[in-house]
User: Fold this.
Amino acid sequence: MTQNTVEKTPVTLLGLGAMGAALARTWLAAGHPLTVWNRTPARSAALAAEGAKVAGSAAEAVAANSLVVVCLLDDASVDEALAGADLTGRDLVNLVTGTPAQARARAEWARERGARYLDGGIMAVPPMIGAPEAGGYVFYSGSRELFERHRRTLGVPAGTTYVGEDAGFAALYDVALLSAMYGMSAGAAHAFALIRKEGIDPASLAPLLADWLVAMAPGIHLTADQLRSGDYAKGVVSNLAMQVAGVPTFLGTAEQQGVSPELLSPYFELMRRRLADGHGEEDLTGVIDLLIR
Ligand code: NDP
Assistant:
């Protein structure tokens, strides 16, 4: 198959919300024949004007092409939309955000209906779709053969990162990265709250905060190294005992600034527990052990 032929693989896309519409436009722009379906037909009209074929039902859209990409709101909407569709012989790529268990169940559901299955976790917001320089990408897991077959087509909207045959892994990686993002957002929220009453321009803190988080991020590699070796004191530069000694400074500053410590306190509590268990010479990595149920 020539590259040109691969680039023109016909695609069916179910769901034209903010993300679906962004995906659709990149395939159209790259010359892929595109069949779309959306529950609310008005959203399809704009895509029709840009060259997409509009199907009258999800079943009709599924029948149109062997590669079927789903970008609906949630797992329940997939059940609803695909209830009457014949998936036999289809290559189903599900980009709906969900849990690993939902992805595994959906893979089994697809297999029972005669479809091959790939699950995806989108690490991008709509403006990053079709903009490779923005660095967005999609995690894929499930059938490796299916991923390889459609790699080029799936790579049109955003980069592709395959993370394993277990269909649940794309969702797991997706949620892992987003969970870390929320931790970062929580820390930044606390930092902005600390300066709020002082008349300090948030715009003056922002570049310092962003640069600091970037400077600290490589520490994640040391954490991984410690987890792999089982030696949580390996390469430690700021040990747990020293960091726990600093906790009253953080809590005291929050109190003096009239800021609730509720975002930071749970983490400090875990640090204290780990210290109380006798691991003062270690890094913060032992907190991970306390989280495992
Ligand atoms: P939107 O809310 O913009 O669109 C939701 C889409 O799902 C619409 O096409 C909507 O149809 C459809 N839908 C909802 N319920 C049903 C249903 N019961 N039956 C059929 N269709 C239904 O969401 P996005 O496009 O932003 O998100 C789509 C997926 O992409 C989600 O899983 C989201 O988590 C994921 N994602 C989104 C990101 C983002 O920043 N937007 C980032 C990363 C992932 P209708 O037009 O009729 O309402």
About this structure: The chain is about 50% helix and 10% strand. The chain has a mean pLDDT of 96. The first strand starts at residue 11 and ends at 14.
